[in-house]
């Protein structure tokens, strides 16, 4: 690998690192026609897949030159940073060389916008076409769709890649225009809708013609920047819930604002990256998708922002004492699932196990319930043998605010997601 390519790689990999919307796949692409590589639906990400495999993904920009001047973006037009750009063939060949050296298993490709959205999209598609048709590469590819690109180019890309993402960046139109005057939500939502519609049509086509190529089999994702503007957690999660109503939307990612561009009067002064808030939003996102919570239960007019001292599930439980105690041996799966310290896996095991015997605290411990958290909210067969604390909400909060989330042995981060909570 020559020095020129290495220099470009260093610059463009650095420029791509703030996009977190690329951690999991959910796509299966089998090797065929003596090609190279394959993709597994169990997931591909920067660190670990859902089944525990350690894999790597080349995350890179085609170019970090950009005609837009978004205040929050390190690659904005007015920022004084080293610039570089690959040709489509250079990036395709680099990907294959890394794959053959066993450095990577897939590719995440994005780009600054050069000349026009269509011109940029065409060049990224050219990279993928070289990989798929000339190198017969069947590995996982995630492409960042360019807002403003034509529907035809979105269609072409979707038949070649496994997942596409269109980043919302700023949750509200007003604040987006403040920080990114060249963008608007209309141009962002249009490719989102196009990907969704094409995916639904492709599913119907494949029912009739099984040989029809798949369109973004791993769906789409998006990212919102948190802390650069004044949106409340309620506004962010309401938008998240709307996005998840589309079956094609697999993940919404939250990226704490990082001041990478020096002083700009449009941006807030941030001493530390708001990692705690970012983490709480991921936890709330998990409640929406897997725990049957509504947005209004997590955040509402009275509590517009998430409590940073405890996780949102515990915060909800403390605010709703009328829901408790939950009888582990009698109450429904839905009620048990809402107990802090009990995850999806544990709740299912409880419902199965209690068919055969009355469950005790010791049995709950063996199942995997985090009793330090759950003890405040449940009753079970031998409750007299276990000290149930008739405690105030403040005492519970203080007792558990530093307790790690261990339900189903899971903690989720934006780049490393492990199931359950």
Automatic annotation (TrEMBL):
CDD domains registered for this protein in UniProt: Radical_SAM
Organism: Gilliamella apicola
All copies of domain Radical SAM core, residue ranges: 62-197
Keywords for this protein: Iron, Iron-sulfur, Metal-binding, S-adenosyl-L-methionine
Cofactors demanded by this protein: [4Fe-4S] cluster
NCBIfam families on file: rSAM_link_UDG
Matches recorded under Gene3D superfamilies: Aldolase class I
Alphabetized InterPro entries for the sequence: Aldolase_TIM, DNA_rSAM_put, Endo/Exo/Phosphatase_dom_1, rSAM, rSAM_sf, RuvA_2-like
Domain of life: Bacteria
Region span, Disordered: 21-40
Full protein name: DNA modification/repair radical SAM protein
GO molecular function terms listed in the Swiss-Prot or TrEMBL record: catalytic activity; iron-sulfur cluster binding; metal ion binding
